[in-house]
Amino acid sequence: MRAKSLFLATAVASALALAAAPGARAEGIKVGMITTLSGGGASLGVDVRDGFMLAVKMSGRDDIEVVIEDDQRKPDIAVQLADKMIQSDRVDLLTGIIWSNLALAVVPAAVAQGKFYLSPNAGPSQLAGAGCDPLHFNVAWQNDDLPAAAGTYLAAEGFDNTLLLAPNYPAGHDMVNGFKRTFTGGINGEIFTKLGQKDYAAEIAQIRASGADSVFFFLPGGMGISFLKQYADSGVDIPLFGPAFSFDQGILQAVGDAALGVRNTSQWNKDIDNPANKAFVEAFQAEYGRLPSLYASQGYDTANLMISAMEKADVSDTDAFRAALEEADFDSVRGKFSFAPNHFPVQDIYVREVIKEGDVFTNRIVGVAATDFVNAYVDQCKM
Amino acid sequence: MSLILVIEQVLNGLQSGVMLFLMAAGLTLIFGVMGLINLAHGSLYMIGAFAAAAVAGATGSFLLGLAAALAASAAAGALIEASVLRRLYGRDHLDQVLATFALILIFSEGTRWLFGSFPLYLDIPDWLSGPVLLPGGIHYPLYRLAIIGVGLLVAFGLFALISRTRIGIRIRAGEADREMIGALGVNISVLYTLVFALGAALAGLAGALIGAIQSVQVGMGEPVMILAFVVIVIGGIGSIRGALVGALLVGLTDTLGRIFLPMLFGLFMEPTAATTTGSALASMSIYILMAAVLLVKPTGLYGSAG
Fold it and tell me: Which of A216, B170, B205, B244 has the fewest C-beta atoms under 10 angstroms from its C-beta?
């Protein structure tokens, strides 16, 4: 009983403190970044963080304070961090989450408390459709987007018997559904694997026996490394396609020759020809000594979007700041960039091919899969 | 569904089983002899993989990488035994869990500090890459066959070591009555360090062999660690034979369940629902197996009563 009343008193006190907070700071912004910096998915979070911090540094502004915490890829920890950042760090804006299941745990509560959330990666369908929110912006893609573009591409290339492979979690289902929405050819079958699975011998045997003419797969991070190496070693020669996540700069070196020639869809690549991208790729290499990845480009764009809004409005003026974000008035490294009504990007999606430049495995653009692509959930969003 | 697919999946199950055995053998040996629950066993697996990737990357030789994996993980095992775990043999299991969990964090962040957050490259050597044609027209990767061979070889070697050699007698004696063998003049602390290093080397070997077909990255050991615990619970804690049988059971159940459960559900459900339900049930299958074994034999298949 005593603990309960103590808790109540604390809650009331912090509510009072919160109510007094707005307008206290005239300028500047405090950003809470929750991202994955340890464990298996760390390379993604590190890239988002580095891209974001590079843009902050390049802006030369000293009124941006970033609190960075590691979510360990665990939803419960992400929720705790968000609570801490909102209540004790008093951040104005949250960003950084990589994984869709974590985003679903954090974002609805954060925006309900009046905080902006800018997603540098995860774009689950739930947050794009009925669960969209005026304070939530996605600067990467909706989960369906890259696979949907791949579906268009494969159909155009004449494939008609495609096998689909993805992990059994929200983004995995989004990816498979996205592909099926645009792919007009025949589907051979679907395989859902455990999230984090590393051995694909059983699935590869199934692919070998399937008689499919193409395989579309979504296996981000270490899962993709394992799958590609094992697939190459199995001698199965059915062509592979996928969204960019298994062909990212961070993991291609670990995959090696096994990924060469595989085509994948992406909204960004380092050879997109515009001044913002050139500056980004050069600055990133100079700062961190490695090539930037897709995730780094998303972190960089997220920070630049935020900075562009800061130049027009103060973050404490929620409506003005939101309107400024909606304009997306920044030089995206992707070239064209604007927001659909549900605050997800409208952008071109390219087809890339894995190549070897000297000793380094990387991608080059070989075509355009979709122009001004709008995600499929716009109509379900009421705001 | 053809017979070839079934045979290929059984081979896959065997391969995953023998690798689990390498992990579980060390774990069960350490528990059997020292009574220590070592959560950090997965870190030794990771150390093996990183040592193999680093040395194979620098020298270009996979075999040197394997040797480095054995040496590095055995050394790491001996080091943590002598510095930390030795103090915990007399303590409660909960203290051991706490300390070895701390070791996981230290090893993971230490590895990240040394090698960075990005996965390392370790590939199958050319002379083991590609598929071979088995009788019956089955294409099967040579490397996975080699893994099965190495795993079985290690299993027989371990049985021979424990049942036929002097050191094996001491290990068994240590399991039975640690005070008595100390009183008989066996240097018990050297024996413990040796057993620990042996268990660690087996984990490191598994890490290096598996690292070549999966990704070498921080945190790679923990999922395997959980499976290894399931294996020794099924097999009976402290029993090497139980570890082998348990590992093969878990490997086969997991592999066959992953493929055939969705197909089974497909017979009477629509395809998308069948794959989703089947996959969900498949990821539970080994735990269902464990529960079933414990219902019938509460101490595991080969566990000693009490």
Answer: B170
